[in-house]
Amino acid sequence: xxxxxxxxxxxxxxxxxxxxxxxxxxxxxxxxxxxxxxxxxxxxxxxxxxxxxxxxxxxxxxxxxxxxxxxxxxxxxxxxxxxxxxxxxxxxxxxxxxxxxxxxxxxxxxxxxxxxxxxxxxxxxxxxxxxxxxxxxxxxxxxxxxxxxxxxxxxxxxxxxxxxxxxxxxxxxxxxxxxxxxxxxxxxxxxxxxxxxxxxxxxxxxxxxxxxxxxxxx
Length: 218
Ligand code: E4P
Prior knowledge:
Layout: E1 2-6, H1 10-17, E2 24-26, H2 29-35, H3 39-49, E3 54-57, H4 63-74, E4 80-85, H5 88-99, E5 103-109, H6 112-120, E6 125-128, H7 130-135, H8 140-152, E7 160-163, H9 169-178, E8 182-185, H10 187-192, H11 197-213
Helix pairs in contact: 1-3, 4-5, 6-8, 8-9
The structure holds erythose-4-phosphate.
The site of erythose-4-phosphate has 11 residues, from helix 7.
């Protein structure tokens, strides 16, 4: 499973990129607003740090403007994936951008039917929002399972399932079990994946025993 990080915070991206765990980055208008930075500048900077896909969302809602914005965002760097919402105009923009060879991430997906439309539009990624479904008492992981099952029926579907709105490590492991291609994780969740109390306890014991030997390797 590939891990993207869901942030526009450059310091976080630089730090986590060094871990070797980061395959890409996703942003959205909320994350850009939170960064307090100009979208063109911040996306360019992220693309310099990370080689994999960097999602940048078009803030318009009509096809003509979305297409212009998408082309401008894609011109920033080769690894920009233009993010469009799952609306009729968004999917029309997806089709047009894919014809230009530009990666497209279709976002705000909340049903398997929507995911089918995105695949038909040739989306590079479909972003189903697990946490936001959980928030309204609908099991978000069931949607991931549905989409993975449906996509796997058709050899010609190349759209990757990108699990978004991840709120806990269990979302990641369950989605991996279902065969999801990518999970985009807030930095805090990526860091949580490393943790296990038995790892910490075991390391403490090993270090104490090692110290008692008085040895040194270097
Ligand atoms: C990523 O592409 C999505 O925009 C993001 O995961 C949404 O997460 P949220 O529901 O926590 O805002």
